[in-house]
Each structure stands twice: as structure tokens, then as C-alpha cells.
Amino acid sequence: MNIxxxxxxxxxDRYGIPVPEGYPADNIEEVEQIMDLHFPDGKIVVxxxxxxxxxxxxxxxxLANTKEEAIEAARKLFGKTLVTKQTGPQGKLVRKVYIEKxxxxxxxxxxxxxxxxxxxxxxxxxxxxxxxxxxELAETAPEKIIKETIDxxxxxxxxxxxxxxxxxELNDTNSAELTDILSHMYEMFIQxxxxxxEINPLAICNGHLxxxxxxxxxxxxxxxxxxxxxxxxxxxxxxxxxxxxSAFGMNYVSLSGNIGCICNGAxxxxxSMDTIYHYGGKPxxxxxxxxxxxVDKAYKAFExxxxxxxxxxxxxxxxxxxxxxxxxxxxxxxxxDELNYEKPVVVRIEGNRAETAxxxxxxxxIPVILAENCSDAVKKMxxxxxxx
Length: 388
Ligand code: GDP
Ligand code: MN
Hints:
CATH class of the largest domain: Alpha Beta
Structural class: alpha+beta
Radius of gyration: 25 Å
Mean pLDDT: 95
Largest sheet: 6 strands, antiparallel
Number of helices: 13
Number of domains: 3
Shape: elongated
Low-confidence stretches: none
Distance between the termini: 39 Å
Number of strands: 18
CATH topology of the largest domain: D-amino Acid Aminotransferase, Chain A, domain 1
Strand content: 15-25%
CATH superfamily of the largest domain: ATP-grasp fold, B domain
Bound molecules: guanosine-5'-diphosphate, manganese (II) ion
């Protein structure tokens, strides 16, 4: 689960990571109040709060030196659709801004903590040249990226920090500050079940380290341990179809192709998508219905997938172990019937009660194309799409 920069900074502040003073605002009146109350000198930064990086280059981070400039900057941002490197061409609507004390930056450093799945360990990633072009640097000069893993049986130790500080060529003051920041990041990562804490830039301002930007993602699967963090979710930022699916206990992911995909199980979903790519197609989305599935759930799965952007046809790939495939077939036929669905639907169903499922599909009012296996399903779909 992603959260906003201002929420990430509030969390980091609680763990003792230095962040500039700042306040979120939903409208111009709030911006005015914040300026009067907290920033009488007017020197602030107005930052668009959307779930995306690359805001600086897209005009989403504006420096202001007076209250008037601050209000003008906020006016520009509220209601604007920001298109960044990370949002895709449709961009993201700005509904909230963060008003933050302006810092004088002497140097920008990149710092993050994540789980490196190659080694299965918490890993700090740092780079002496942080800021807005870190992705390019990772490609052009990968030797400049510093990585330090944490041994889980030892936990965070000072040597890790000293190594990173040395390679960043920090002075003694900043090196000691970095040690604190890293240990607090590690503590927060564990306590809050994070999957990423990214500070870019970690800046030197007036000789001291300060987190000027923050990206934190929380492990959705661990959210049951952090009911209070669930409130940090901004529903405006989530894919509405994904939310609808999750209300039914299903996982939905939007992609950029044109073939809708319904599977039971994430593994089957992945391999189905690989197969689609293998034959030169592109999935538009994919729905993992999960283990137990009723007629209603199958209906809903079909309905959501059919509403996905650019869906020109739907592949259903089901292997019934615990799942009753006859119920799935019933749900799909019902959905196609009621939605009057006329685009091609290719179904591969095997396993538990598959004969009944096939009967149901064959007798449907709107014809379904049956497939022997996953490759067959994909080939049939691609052929159909070519014809249309
Ligand atoms: P991002 O582009 O979405 O990653 O947003 P950031 O919060 O990282 O801001 C982009 C850039 O704006 C930073 O890399 C800084 O160079 C600059 N910036 C952000 N806050 C301040 C500030 O307080 N003072 C100055 N001078 N620059 C800032
Ligand atoms: Mn940044």
C-alpha cells in the first residue's frame, strides 16, 4: 500500500528521522491559514501530494518566498493533472498539497531501505548523487550505487552505517547523523511492516542531514497488524476496479494491453500472462479469483474484467482443485448473458466438475470458445482478435 509523502514524513518524524516542518492542505483557505500560522516569513515549498515520484520535473514542486507566491503556487497545483515519468500519460489529479519549510540544499543524496529479494535481506541502497536523476544514474553509472545488506541474526549494526557514510564521503557530524537515520529507518521498517522507505533527496541543509522527500510503502498483507495505518490509504489514488475486486476478496491488476484475463490463483495468472506475451499478445488486466469461488464471485470477476480499459476479449483460465468449475462456468455465462457481452471469450477449464462446466458453456446463449489448454486459449484469442 502506498501512502503520501506528508504521511510518510509524519511517520518518519515519529521514528526520529529529521524532516522539515510541514502541513498538508486541501484547499486555498487552508494554505492561507498555514502560511499565517506557521510560515510568517513566506519561505516555503508547495508540493503536490500524488502517489508518484518525478513531481519536481513535472512542475509539482514549487518554491515560494512570500505568502502570495505560496497561494499562487497552490492555485496552480489544486485540480491540476500532473503527468510524471511514473504516472503514465493519463497523469494524476492533485487534490492535496503539502506546505513545507523551504530548505537551502548543499548536497543531495539518495537513500533507501528495501528487501533485496535476490539475497532475501533488508538492504540499504545509497548514492552520493541523489535528487531527480537517480534512475538514469543507476543505468549509466551502476558502480556509484552503494548497497549494504543487514544480517537478520545481527540486525542493524553501526558498521553498516560507517561503511555507507565513508563511501558517501560524509564529514563526522553527518556521518553520526546518518548512523541515527539508518537505525531509525530500520526500526520503522520492521515496526510498521514496510516494503520500502525511500528518501530522495536526503539533503545536507545548513550542514545537517534532512529528509526532503519520502516514499514509504506498507505491506498490505501485514495490514491486519496495523489497523491504524489502514487509515493512511487514499482511496482517490487507488484503481477503482482494484478496490471493487478486493471488496469481493479478489485481486485485480490493470495492465496496458487488450486481453482481459481471469484465473484462479496468482501462479496460474502469471503463467497465463507469460503465455499471452509469448504468442505476441498483451494482457489488459488480470483477475485472480482466489480459491473458493461462488457463482456471484465469478459473475463479479467477469463483470470487473470486462470493464477494464481496452479489453477486446477475455481469456478465462481455471484449474479446479478446491474450486468448483461448474459454479465458475455458471457465473461467467450469467454475466455474459446479463451484460450482453459480445466480444470474444475463450475459456479453458479443467479439474473439479469440469464436464458440467463445459456443458454449461456449450449451452450458453452467447457462444464461448472452448480451449484445451492455456496455449490453445491464447492462440484462439489472438486469432479471433486478428479477424475482428
Ligand atoms: P520528486 O520530484 O517527486 O521526487 O519530489 P522531491 O520532493 O524530491 O522534489 C524534487 C526536487 O525539488 C528535489 O530533488 C529538490 O532538488 C527540490 N526541492 C525539494 N524541496 C526543496 C527545498 O526545500 N528547497 C530547495 N531549494 N529545493 C527543494
Ligand atoms: Mn524525490
